[in-house]
Amino acid sequence: MRKKQLMLLTFSAAVLAGFATVTPAAARDYPWCAQGGDYDYPGECAYATYEQCQASVSGRLLYCDRNPRFAYGQVLPAQPRPPRRVRPVAPY
């Protein structure tokens, strides 16, 4: 019984440590968007070049246009990292 409790406690600590180290995915906007069809404005902005966008929309009844965030200089600022926690050092 004691072994099971210790194993469960160890497993729980490992799972919590895993959740603590997970960082959110960084959203990234690219300069070209696939627009039209089922996409809301500004569309699917996942293309670095016009050619990539054209290859993706081919046969999908969509079109390519500039990402308005890039076109009008409204790129979202990067999220600041939370401050690091530092433990105070005890005097000797």
What is the fold's blueprint, element by element?
Elements lengths: L1 H20 L10 E4 L8 E4 L2 H8 L5 E4 L1 H4 L21
What brief labels describe this structure?
alpha+beta; three-stranded antiparallel β-sheet; 35% helix
Describe what is shown at a glance.
This protein has three helices and three strands, in the order αββαβα.
Structure description:
By secondary structure, the protein is an alpha+beta fold. The chain has a domain at 25-75. It is built from three helices and three strands. It has helices spanning 2-21, 50-57, 68-71, and strands at residues 32-35, 44-47, 63-66. It has a three-stranded antiparallel β-sheet with strand order 2-1-3. It is elongated and about 65 Å long. The model has no long low-confidence stretch (mean pLDDT 78).
The sequence of SSEs as H and E is HEEHEH
Major sheet summary line: 3 strands, antiparallel
What spatial form do the alpha-carbon principal axes imply? elongated
The count of strands amounts to 3
The helix-and-strand class reads alpha+beta
Taken as a percent bin, the fraction of beta residues is 5-15%
Helix count? 3
C-alpha end-to-end distance: 42 Å
Taking pLDDT < 50 over at least 5 consecutive residues as the criterion, the unreliable ranges are: none
Helical fraction equals: 25-40%
| Residue-averaged pLDDT | 78
- Strand order in the largest sheet: 2-1-3
Radius of gyration over C-alpha positions, nearest whole angstrom: 23 Å
